[in-house]
Amino acid sequence: MKRLSIVAALVLLAGARAFAQTDVAPKPENGGAKKGPPPPIKVATVDLSKVYDGWTKVKDFTDGLEAQKKEQEAELQKMELEIKEKVTIRDTPGINPKLKMGAQLEIVQLQAKADYMMKMWNEQVKRMLDEGIAKYFDEIQAEVAAFAKENGITLVFKTETGKLGDSQDPSRSDEKIARRSLLYGAEEYDITGDVLSRLEEKYKKEKAAAPKEGAGGNGGK
Question: Rounded CA gap, 194 and 197, in Å?
């Protein structure tokens, strides 16, 4: 009896081991997929100053602002001439007091209008510049990303050329230094020219696809 009990125990133990071996093992997390090593790092640099300076789209934008500025200056010059004429009338010896007072009132009104126009113009230009810079930066960044993906580039650093001491405006030097996130980049890593060429090509297509001014007899609108 004792021997039979030992044999039975051995049979049960063997069965338990067999069951344990046939049981489904727990799946590792994430479906068992193992992350491979990251791809080798390939870096590049883009000189934003060169892109902004060389991109025709930015030049056309700033030229448009300059044209509006000249129109505004011409309008202000007309108002200055009117003010001078009123000052001449006001300062005429022996002029009727009512005419003198009327001329003075017109001088004040014209000057207030000129000041208001100048203030509004400055605010408008600042807003348009801020919006333009942000919009163009987004386009540049998208083009950099597209070029990087096509060429297996993993990191692109922003850089700016030119010595800080050459700037005509020495104020806020700390901000200018902070903007220079890269102190040095070898020329062979510079993709500025490639990015600029792609941006130029896209802009040419945009202008070609845009309706011509006056098309359809309604200014192309």
Answer: 5
Specify the CATH superfamily of domain 40-164+173-207.
Skp domain (3.30.910.20)
Q: Nearest 5°: CA angle at 127, between 123 and 132?
A: 150
User: Sign of the C-alpha dihedral, residues 78, 79, 80, 84?
Assistant: positive
Tens of pLDDT, residue by residue over 180-196, are: 777 777 888 999 999 99
Sign of torsion, CA 110 112 118 123?
negative
**Spatial contact of 105 and 77, defined as CB atoms under 8 Å apart:** no
Can you give the pTM of this predicted structure?
Answer: 0.64
Residue 145 CB neighbours (<10 A): 12
Contact between 102 and 85 (Cβ < 8 Å) = no
